Every structure is written in structure tokens, then in C-alpha cells.
Amino acid sequence: MLSQYWLTVLATAGAFSALGADARQIRKQEIHARQVDAAKRFHSHSFPVKRAAVPKNITFSNPKASQFYVNGTTIPEVDFDIGPSWSGLLPISGNANETRKLFFWFFPPGPEGSLEDLIFWTNGGPGCSSLEGLLQENGPFQWSWGQAKPTVNEFSWTNLSSVLWVEQPVGTGFSQGTPNIRNEDDLAAQLVGFLQQFLEVFSELKNKKLYLSGESYAGTYVPYIANYIYQHPGTLALDLQGIWIADPSLSWDVVQEQIPAVDFVKRFEHVFAFNQTFMTQLDAIATRCNYTGYVAKHVTYPPKAGLLPLPGRSTFAERGCDVWDTIFDAALRINPAFNIYRIFDTYPILWDVLGFPGSFPQVQLAPLYFDRDDVKKAIHAPGSVTWNECSDINVFPRGDGSLPSALSVLPNVIEKNNKTVIIHGLADFILIAEGTRIVIQNMTWNGKQGFQTPIANDSFLVDGVGALGTSHTERGLTYLEVELSGHMVPQFSPLAAFQSMQYLMGFRFTP
């Protein structure tokens, strides 16, 4: 016989089944319709875009430019016309025997874009290809993780102006030659040398307003490149206006990874899903290594005068204090697909046409997109090069001898720029936003140290979305934080990235 408990359960179930059509049911068709409607609303608030529209007319008088022309209807796997573009290799100097060359891909502005501006983009690494940024972040066509084929990128930065993606420094991607740079000044000199050669071929771009942008280790690259341009006036026939850097490497590892790591885990405790025993161990490490309470004590608004102290005697984690790696190893045991670039990822790992999803390379069934012979031919890339998203070659053969940019050139660059934008995804674990806050409060520019007033919650308002993080501007520096975004903000939160670039370029009054 059934117990009284099960008789009650069955009676209750029968009562619910008797509701029939009155019961709450959501069909897959309704869910899909809601998603489609939400996507339409989201895209309707973006910069006006015409899908696959013809770019603004731009021609180059130098006959050499025709050698780099790319027919937008012949890009493999792309079933729409991406419009005209120019790509290939150019040397880093005018020396007749120069063997070092950088690979570039240049796109003119779309129909709503400006002909008076030029955005330069570089990925980081060091040694990671800017073609990743083009294909999966801010280029006119997009083939991101899990996509079956390329699609039009409605948030392409070509809807703002011309964009130049460059694989640099030497040793990155398709670029040619033997790396020999010792520091960021060497890198900047070679990049500016390349730009000089580029402007000789594409001379109609001379004197445009220039905006330098990039992410990750470009937080080191871009400020040093900007500083080099400011220190060598007249060297480059472009008018530098400002810089945009996302999830940037600005300071020591202990500041941007170790100090904020345990607080980061606590913020996303249900994502990491660590047990309380392990959390207690993390707390003990943080306390022993002087990470606990660091932000509350030292990151004040306005900051206490003087440089903020390191938690130990080293710019790296001291022995027994590498809590970041401890967390990473534990996260991988729980979730082998854990992604330091976007912590929400779980199985299955999304297939990546560039072969680098998340925290580890994935074995591909076919060549990486930019390592295909037909793709190389279409974009004038050297067929002999085996392309990888991030180079196995050490682009700094003896290491990067420069100080982090926030401790050297970045303050000067902020002072000389019209605007400077730093943007950070809050779901990024490889470089943590709270660490960037520490960096800013430790930096002095335009006569004062750090931000003088607190960063307000829910202050970054994205068109058609609402509050999506924080926004704060003081003395020429704008700092933005983006909820839900991982390390690559233009990939994970494209409208937020697009809007922040509009602000940098003066196309809107607020970020």
C-alpha cells in the first residue's frame, strides 16, 4: 500500500494536472521569439549600421598600394562582401636591406564612419596576433568562439573610422625577421618606423587623427608607443589624439593578480564553487601575505599621499604567496574548462577557428583559419609561415627591460592626450579589475595622485541596456568597468566597447 505521504503527493499532482491550460508553460518557440526581440532592441541602439553596406570611397595614388588590395568578395568562408581592404607586409624602416617586416590589414570606414580619423589596434601577449582582434573583436566580419561561420560585425570599429590592425612586434603572426628588441622603446621605434613606411604607400592617410588601442599586454605597448610619438614630434605624419586600452597590463603581477585574487573569488563564489575548507586556506594565505584588507586600507578616495606599499619585498608573489596560481589550479580541478579570460565558461568548450579557446589550445580538425593556404593567398600573407594566434618565438629575446607603463610613461601620455580610456571586464581573472583600481590610485598625473572622488556603482550607462558597470573620469582619464565581460571587452561586450570608443573619438559627450 502507498503511504499517506505518497497519497498526498499524488493528490497534489492531480490537482495541478487538472489546471490544464491554466498551468504555466513556456514553449521553445516563445523563448526563441523573446531572444530575437531582445537582440533587435539591443542592436537598434548601436551606431547606425547597414549590413554589408559599401564602405566610403577611398583611393590611393601610390601604385604600390594596389599590391596590397584585397577583394572583399574573395575572403574564404565569408559569404558576404566585406568591402575593399588592403593587407600585407611592410618593413619597419626605409633601409634597402631591411629584413624585418610587420603584417597589417587596413580597412576604410563604413558608410557612417569618419574619413578624418584612424584607429590603430594591437593585441598583446607579448607576441599575440592582432588578427585575433580583427576576426573576433572589432573587425567588420566576425568568427568568434562557437560560430559556425563568419558573420557581419554590427559593432565593427570601421563604423567609426578607418582601422589598421598590425601584427607586432617582429616575431608575431605573419611578421618577418628576427626579433631583437630589448624594451618598449625599441618596440615603439620599430612600430613607428613601420607606420612611416605604411604612410608612404598610403599617403592619403597622412595627418589623420590617430587613436592607439589594444588590450592586455598592449597596456604596456600602447602607452610606450604614444610616449615615443610625443617625444619625437614630426616623426610621424599623424595627429595623436588619445589611447584606449582594455584589461591592460599596467603594473606588477603582485598588484594586478595576487592582491585582488581572493576578493575576486569571493565576489564570484558560486562560479568557482570552492568548498569552505579551501576558502579558509585561501584566507590564510592572503592574511599571511598581506593581501587581506589591502584595498580597504590603501585604495582610498582621495588616496593617501605617496606610493602605495607592496604587500611583500618583491614585485612578484613571494614564496608561498602565489595565491593566483593556487586558485587557478583548484578551479581547473572542479571545472577543467575554466577560462581565466572569462570565468563563466564550462563544458563543452566552444570550438575556436583560431585554435585558442579559453585557457588552453584545442586540437583542431582543420588548419587554423589564418594558417589556411587560401586565406593566406587572399590577404597577401607569406605562405611559408605557420600562423599561430600567439607566437612560440620570444619577441623580447632577453625579456622586456621596461618598467610597467603606469610606473613610467602612462602619466605623461594621459597629460598629453585629449582623452585616455581604460576599460576592464569584471569577469576577467588573468588581469583583475580591482588590481587596476590599485594601479590608478598609485599613479600621479596632472598634478594629483589617483582619483579624488569614489567610483560610483552602476555609473556606466550603455545605450539601450542601462547600467552595465562603472564609469569615472578625472583629469583626462576615464576608467570603465563592464559587468559580464571577460578579458576581451570588444568580444564579450561589443556595444560597451563600441560606445567607449565613440567617447574617446568625440562622437559622444559621455562614455
From TrEMBL:
<dbReference type="Pfam" id="PF00450">
    <property type="entry name" value="Peptidase_S10"/>
</dbReference>
<protein>
    <recommendedName>
        <fullName>Carboxypeptidase</fullName>
        <ecNumber>3.4.16.-</ecNumber>
    </recommendedName>
</protein>
<dbReference type="InterPro" id="IPR001563">
    <property type="entry name" value="Peptidase_S10"/>
</dbReference>
<comment type="similarity">
    <text>Belongs to the peptidase S10 family.</text>
</comment>
<dbReference type="GO" id="GO:0006508">
    <property type="term" value="P:proteolysis"/>
</dbReference>
<keyword id="KW-0325">Glycoprotein</keyword>
<dbReference type="InterPro" id="IPR018202">
    <property type="entry name" value="Ser_caboxypep_ser_AS"/>
</dbReference>
<keyword id="KW-0732">Signal</keyword>
<keyword id="KW-0121">Carboxypeptidase</keyword>
<feature type="signal peptide">
    <location>
        <begin position="1"/>
        <end position="23"/>
    </location>
</feature>
<dbReference type="InterPro" id="IPR029058">
    <property type="entry name" value="AB_hydrolase_fold"/>
</dbReference>
<dbReference type="InterPro" id="IPR033124">
    <property type="entry name" value="Ser_caboxypep_his_AS"/>
</dbReference>
<keyword id="KW-0378">Hydrolase</keyword>
<dbReference type="GO" id="GO:0004185">
    <property type="term" value="F:serine-type carboxypeptidase activity"/>
</dbReference>
<keyword id="KW-0645">Protease</keyword>
